[in-house]
Amino acid sequence: MTTHRVRFLVLAAAALLQLTGSTIASEGERVRDAQIDEQVRDAIFKRAEFAGDEISVQTHDGVVYLHGLVDTNVERAAVEALVKDTPGVTRVVNALELRNRTR
Question: Are 64 and 21 in contact, with CB atoms under 8 Å apart?
Fold first, then answer.
């Protein structure tokens, strides 16, 4: 086998290992994000003061996105603080809105 061919095979094998590792890492990220989602939802909805709120949670790469309706700014801030304390959360994007009480 020539030196050129050996070098090519080594580079090809290295590229394949890198691609395989990336695939495994992204699957791991999805699992971790799903676990964070579950922990965040459990933390929010086991608290009585948030029981009637309409909050959705989505996590991507450790960033938690909050959407929905809450009654007060105090609740909005409390939900965000609760989420920030969840293991694995790297950042919180709080898009919670106040419920209109005059409807």
Answer: no
| CA distance linking residue 68 with residue 62, whole number of Å | 19
Classify domain 3-98 at the CATH class level.
Answer: alpha beta
Chain segment 67-78, per-residue pLDDT in tens:
999 989 999 999
- Determine the Cα–Cα distance for residues 102 and 97; give it in Å rounded to an integer: 15
Tens digit of each residue's pLDDT (9 = 90 or more) over 5-54? 555 555 555 554 454 444 444 777 778 999 999 999 999 988 888 766 78
Domain ranges of the chain: 3-98
- The torsion angles phi and psi of 56, rounded to 5 degrees, stand at -110, 145
pTM here is 0.69
Could you tell me which of 80, 68, 74, 77 has the C-alpha nearest to residue 43?
A: 80
